[in-house]
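Is this the right way to post structure tokens for a design question? Let me know if I should format differently. Anyway, here goes:
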């Protein structure tokens, strides 16, 4: 396009994505540089993180010795009616500017989905959602440009050419055909080494057996027992009994953790998640919400276990919010202008005392306010919620003699 003064207006467009749950929506970053008062505006239903991108992009370009032209720069994130959230738009915006001012050849970025956050000194920082973006790129027959640290995560979306760059300078060199960036390799996240072992548990044969059956069949389990009976101890040993994730499940679990920004080292999660939120957790923390409609604990437990210790201490509203996801295996997080659906198919394991003081039915330390103490305490959990448990077991206290066997040098049971 030739302007009145004979100067060519400069355009560029870069492909990226916005996230809806673990799904992606294609977004085009359109850059238009024209004569006029120097200014830079970013439009297209953006959130605060995208608006702040202007300063990060300007500083990152300056750090590699590139100044923005003193012109009127308009950046549009299309389609304009889709909400754009997150800092991953920094890199496509910066590349769009570099193409528009002629620093990067357009055909080097035309066929790629780009995402990454910029630091002020030109580094490309890891962002959430790289695996879903990589899968979207494969689906559209495109390449991927992403932060170096997210490369191993992206590499799990097979048949994809990935440029995973540590900083803007090395990406520019790669795009101009200089020193090429190596293809990242798919990585597995190492399984946690410090998982507690069933061997620490003395006695409790029935509870052990029930835990094994629950683990094998992904059955929802409620353990009821006095303080110190070993309920929390039993639950903590559940991850060691769970079967491995299938490849499809591993991808889904990794995508959820990626979108939630909880995949720090990149790579594929291969062990089933075990989430144990505190009983003071809010509904938003549990079912997902917040400004960016992030997945909550029940979605992070997808494919694994949600352990709710001291079940009766959770707020009643929070407990009731679990009923629908327990039935449908997914949760709908409502926002002011849209809603997001996350998978939430998890095994619910819970533990609680039989009454407020904990000793209802204990012959040695009888509950002084029985039976009301137990009745009122159990009434905190609604009937339909209790109905969601496939197995409810009593976990009695193991005798002190049995617990002391190791100390006395006798073999443990
Ligand atoms: N069967 C057992 N074998 C070995 N240690 C046990 C056993 N039961 C209880 N303990 C010991 O008692 C401690 C308390 O157990 P735990 O916290 O699991 O009890 P709990 O049933 O969850 O109690 P609360 O209702 O107070 O939460 C454990 O850390 C462990 O040291
Ligand atoms: Mg406990």
């Amino acid at each position: 396009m030739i302007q009145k003064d004979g100067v060519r207006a400069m355009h560029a467009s870069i492909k990226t994505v916005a996230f809806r749950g673990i799904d992606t929506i294609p977004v085009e970053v359109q850059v238009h540089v024209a004569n006029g008062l120097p200014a830079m505006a970013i439009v297209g239903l953006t959130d605060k993180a995208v608006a702040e991108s202007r300063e990060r992009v300007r500083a990152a370009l300056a750090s590699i010795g590139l100044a923005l032209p003193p012109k009127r720069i308009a950046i549009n994130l299309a389609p304009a009616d889709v909400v754009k959230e997150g800092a991953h738009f920094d890199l496509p915006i910066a590349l769009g500017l570099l193409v528009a001012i002629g620093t990067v050849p357009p055909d080097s970025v035309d066929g790629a989905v780009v995402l990454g956050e910029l630091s002020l000194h030109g580094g490309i920082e890891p962002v959430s959602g790289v695996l879903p973006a990589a899968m979207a790129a494969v689906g559209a027959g495109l390449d991927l440009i992403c932060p170096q640290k997210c490369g191993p995560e992206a590499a799990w979306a097979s048949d994809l050419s990935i440029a995973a760059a540590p900083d803007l300078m090395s990406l520019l060199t790669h795009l101009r055909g200089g020193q090429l960036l190596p293809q990242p390799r798919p990585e597995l996240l190492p399984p946690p080494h410090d998982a507690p072992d069933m061997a620490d548990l003395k006695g409790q044969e029935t509870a052990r057996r029930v835990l094994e059956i629950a683990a094998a069949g992904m059955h929802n389990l409620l353990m009821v027992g006095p303080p110190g009976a070993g309920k929390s101890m039993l639950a903590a040993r559940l991850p060691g009994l769970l079967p491995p994730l299938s490849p499809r499940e591993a991808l889904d679990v990794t995508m959820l953790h990626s979108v939630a920004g909880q995949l720090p080292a990149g790579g594929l999660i291969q062990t089933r998640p075990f989430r144990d939120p505190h009983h003071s957790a809010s509904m938003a923390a549990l079912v997902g919400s917040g400004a960016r409609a992030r997945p909550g604990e029940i979605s992070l437990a997808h494919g694994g276990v949600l352990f709710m210790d001291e079940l009766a201490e959770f707020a009643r509203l929070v407990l009731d919010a679990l009923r629908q996801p327990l039935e449908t295996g997914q949760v709908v997080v409502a926002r002011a202008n849209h809603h997001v659906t996350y998978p939430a198919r998890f095994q619910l394991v819970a533990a609680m005392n039989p009454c407020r003081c904990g000793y209802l039915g204990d012959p040695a330390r009888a509950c002084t306010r029985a039976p009301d103490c137990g009745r009122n305490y159990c009434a905190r959990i609604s009937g339909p919620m209790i109905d969601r448990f496939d197995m409810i077991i009593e976990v009695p206290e193991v005798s002190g003699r049995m617990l002391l066997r190791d100390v006395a040098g006798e073999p443990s049971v």
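Format looks fine. Someone answered above. Worth noting: Residues 201-204, 225, 227-233, 351, 353, 398, 403 surround adenosine-5'-triphosphate (ligand 1) (CB under 6 Å). Confidence is low (pLDDT under 50) at residues 1-7, 407-413.
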